[in-house]
Amino acid sequence: MQFKPVKVACIGMGWWSDVLAEAIKRSAKLEIVACYTRSGEKREAFARKYGCRAATSYEEILKDKGVEAVVNTTPNSVHLETTRAAAEAGKHVFLDKPIANTVADGRAITESCREAGVVLALGYQRRKESHFRWIRRQIDDGIFGRLVNAEANISRDRLGKIDRTSWRYTAEGMPGGVMLQIGIHYTDVLEYLMGPIKAVSGRLAQLVLPGDNPDVASLVLEHENGALSTLNASYASASEYYAMNIYGKEASAYYDLHQGLRFLKRGTERSSPVPCAKNDTIREELEEFADAARGRGKPEMGGEAATTSLAVLRAGIKAAREGRRVEVAEILNGNDG
């Protein structure tokens, strides 16, 4: 049976909306039929570029029975308002991470979609990268033995490149700065590979970029299985860089942006390269969303998992501000201030 493309409307016309729209163009499972943002100029430009209709209001999209789903890249602070409205209109929602700025909002978003019976999927594409999938398979097969430690780095150069009027670079719009904006990708990968995180310690700093938000952050993550992980995130680095090293009692894996993936087993002296073809992770997560909207499976990252992911970051922010170890359960139990 031929798959009927899910007709979507894109809301929030920032740079990431273009990334998602380009991925939709690479897929036969979704079709952009409408768009909306408050800026008339931006929505008209988006409509021309992707061959869709520019709606004059969000309400127009919500009332349009030809729109089956919303791809939402609006600011974190309005994720609840925009997603709840879509759910009440019976439209499935693909929402960019983080799910919200607070756990309370994350839970409300999740519940509104559950009550409406619509699919909610969150954009956590990093865990889908082929090298991390390969590591996960080895872990599942017992090749690593007991997991003991991991270290990760996610860094970008934003010097002279940030828009200080953008919500993405303000403490109000993106509390925790670099750690919430990009660090959350690698706390998610660490949780995916090493297991659930139970407690966090952390430090935040503002060293290079202007504004009121941290551009450097470091976390120590305690996993429920006893393993420890460290994560460094930076917007103040000289270049873009990603690293993820996973250490087990019987084997270790080393990934970095420039060298790719390498693997070492106990008893060998040198690591060996592991060829991993680059995969289209953003298209994959959108197609997973489309499948779920058609009743074929569930998104890998739904509302509950995304809210827990947010709680890990909120624990790290609280730990840095208060100079103490913070358990994730404390944040999930309502101490998210």
Share of helical residues = 25-40%
Structural class: alpha/beta
- Main sheet specs: 9 strands, mixed
Order of helices and strands: EHEHEHEHEHEHEHEEEEEEEHHEH
What percentage of the residues does DSSP assign to strands (E)?
25-35%
**CATH level-four homologous superfamily name of the largest domain:** Dihydrodipicolinate Reductase, domain 2
Number of helices: 10
Beta strands, count: 15
Shape type:
globular
Distance between the termini: 50 Å
Low-confidence stretches: none
CATH architecture of the largest domain: 2-Layer Sandwich
Order of strands in the sheet with the most strands?
14-13-12-11-7-10-9-8-15
The average pLDDT score comes to 94
Work out the count of structural domains: 2
Backbone CA Rg: 20 Å
